[in-house]
Specification:
Oligomer: single chain
Shape: elongated
Mean pLDDT: 76
Low-confidence stretches: 26-62
Helix content: 25-40%
Length: about 170
Amino acid sequence: MKKLFPVIIIIIAGVLGGAGGVLFKKSSGPTGVEHASSSGHGEETGYNGEGRKKEQNDKSDNEISRVFTFSRQFVVPIVRNDRPIALVILEINIAIDDSVSDNAYSREPILRDALLSELLQLAHDGILAKGASDTESLAYIKEVLLKPAQHVLGKGATDILILDIGLRPY
């Protein structure tokens, strides 16, 4: 029986790990969104910023949005009493219209800097850590991040898409 115990533990761990992987599998975006490669950087999509697929006759916004994808994730420390206590890791994309799609990738470092400054302020205010588990905080974070995105890219930045957010305590 002592020889079977490690084998049973390994089997149970494998089953639990597989089930956890299926449950927490990273989704590819909102349901009903179609993606196509666009100049190797972003993704063209029929997303209209409201979580529903755009229709061809949508008169409120005739431009087809594209998705600006950052080259890497944002990692923001949560600091209390001058000591880091956690890291928030975010995967952020920006819905943009065709008026800024050509210019967006050349402005990525400026855009990243502007968003990181806001994320650090949100972390200092204690809001960023709440965004990992609270939908109201997450909506507020998206609203706050849209302002610097529009400052850098203009009104062509239409929405902030937070694809993944995680809190990793130290």
